[in-house]
Amino acid sequence: MIFKRVGHVRPYPDHGRYSAKDWADVPPRPVRLEELVTTKRTLDLELLLDEDSTFFGDLFPHVVQWKGELFLEDGLHRAVRAALGQRAVVHARVLVHDGQTVA
């Protein structure tokens, strides 16, 4: 299995970060794919196959650390691409979320 678990919701409270600009202050770090829990069950193949899929967005997936687990919030296509390339690690922005909304 590629991921720790396939989820379908975000089990954590809203963190207040919505755009790539909101995430810009979170430094990317390596994350093992097998540690990630997805928050989406489906993947848009167009995003997976599009070479310019990050042109208007962030280069790094967005991950939320909540109650000791890492939830892949955005960038499922990037993580799957890494797995298809036989890479076990992806560089992602990891937000440690304590339950408080970030302003």
UniProtKB/TrEMBL annotation:
Name of the protein described by the UniProt record: Type II toxin-antitoxin system VapB family antitoxin
Any Pfam family hit: VapB
InterPro entries reported in the protein's UniProt record: VapB-like_prob
Taxonomic lineage: Bacteria, Bacillati, Actinomycetota, Actinomycetes, Micrococcales
